[in-house]
Amino acid sequence: MRAKITDRFIKDGVLRGAALPAGLFPPVSDIEIRDISLTGFVLIARKTSILTFCLRYRNENGQARKFTIGKYGDLTTTKARQIAQRKLAEVRTGVDVQAQRTISRREAERVKSRSLHGFIDHQYRDWLLTERKSGAATLARIEGNFGDWYDRPLEQINTWLVTNWRSKKLRAGAHKATVNRDISALKALISKAVEWDVIDQHPLRELKPLREDKTGATRFLSEREELCLRKALDERQDRQRAQRQAYRKWQLARSQDPLPSLANATFTDHLKPIVILALNTGLRRGELFKLQRRDLDLTHRLLTVRGEDAKSGHTRIIPLNSEAHDAVHDWLHERENGDNTYVFPSPRTGIKLVTIKTAWQELMKLAKLQGFRFHDLRHTFASNLAMKGADLYSIKELLGHADVTTTQRYAHLAPEHRSKIVELLVAT
User: Fold this and answer.
1) What does the pLDDT read at residue 130?
2) Is 114 marked active-site?
3) What homologous superfamily is domain 2-107 in, according to CATH?
């Protein structure tokens, strides 16, 4: 329909419904009202009760275009008409005002995303959390190390700036490997900014990582230390049995229902079977915590680490030797009435374990082992295999490494084993 678009027309005709079909406002469907005095000036009465001023025109190629001017209420009809007149004048000079607006908006978004903080908030965060398992940890790493640069344009995060930051971290005692990982996270972020056309060039493309010892001094148990660990596991269980027995007597003396006896239990809690499984499979702590009953095939003596639970994201199948098989079998057998999904559920919550830090620290004190972490059980597994002649490729597959280079760090031969080899030179 056509009419002279004025404030009075809107108030008396449109908003009251008098100028609209069926006399209704809001209309059943969107209605376009074309101004009779200014070609292309349009008012759209929407079924959502919103009135919008627009300009309809054709560009130089004859293509029909619509340029949204604004909403009635935010603009008067007089102001909207003035804007329409200016834009029509630009159209007559060959400017496609709607295409120009689209380009301007894209550039504004591009500028908004060019700062470190802007790029993270507008693009990188959602992608990282969706596409990467360690996304939250990576964001925390970037924020913790480079939060002071959040307002900087990405192009200004240059080699000199990062090198200076790196030097300060090293002087403060940070390890080269840690610094390299921090910078790698930042460089990956900027690489995405280049890939997504936020910036044109990577300002850190020439920055090389620090040289670091990829092998390092890997901590693993000697034969004597492993005996001490196993002895400590048994002593810990003996203590728990004695404590349970004493508590049962205390309960019975007060006519309370006693807790189950641990006298004949193979395992008093989850720590010993977890340690045995780690020593014989090389599973990471998180993989053990996420292990479910469906992942065990005790008939064929196989354990599956599912891709969604593995650091590499790839599923791997590990054979269970007799000690690992018997430990898992006995642990589950003594809990055969339990219906928990997890092999090692939390004794407090009944769901997935989150930590065994306290129990592990107590075990280390009992075993008198210094500087030995739970993850070092994985090193011990790999080193023991290497010392017994297992090839690195097989160890790589069992550990779930992406390439054999990483396996060489974990599965190097023990110093004393190498010494025996060197002694062959002087053997008679």
Assistant:
1) 92
2) no
3) Integrase, DNA-binding domain (3.30.160.390)
Considering the segment(s) 223-422 as one domain, its CATH architecture is: Orthogonal Bundle (1.10)
User: CA–CA separation, 412 vs 217, rounded Å?
Assistant: 10
Torsion angle defined by CA atoms of residues 147, 153, 156 and 161, in that order, rounded to the nearest 10 degrees: 0
Strands (E), 150-261: none
Asked if 401 is an active-site residue, the reply is yes
Is 384 in contact with 267 (CB distance < 8 Å)?
Answer: no
Within 8 A by CB and 6+ apart from 411, the residues are: 382, 383, 385, 386, 390, 392, 395, 396, 399
Beta bridge partners of 352: 345
Reported as a single tens digit per residue, the pLDDT across 268-288 is 999 999 999 999 999 999 999
Q: What single DSSP character describes residue 215?
A: S
Edge-to-edge strands, sheet with 316-319: 296-297, 302-305, 316-319
192 is catalytic: no
Beta-strand relationship, 31-35 and 41-45:
antiparallel
What are the Cα distances from residue 400, in Å, to 282, 345, 406? 10, 24, 10
Residue 85 near residue 38 (C-beta atoms within 8 A): yes
What separation in angstroms does the CA of 336 have from each of 4, 322, 340, 377, 409?
83, 20, 10, 28, 40
Helix (H, G, I), strand (E, B) or coil at 64: strand
Catalytic residue among 248, 293, 301, 311: 311
- Domain spans of the chain, in order of start: 2-107, 113-195, 223-422
3-state secondary structure of 33: strand
pLDDT interval class at 56 (50, 70, 90): very high
Is residue 219 pLDDT above 90, yes or no? Answer: no
Distance CA(107)–CA(274), nearest Å, equals: 56
Whether 306 contacts 232, CB under 8 Å: no
- Is 110 a residue of the active site? no
Q: Kindly name the residue from 284, 285, 290, 396 that is annotated as catalytic.
A: 284
Phi, psi values for residue 109, rounded to 5°:
-65, -35
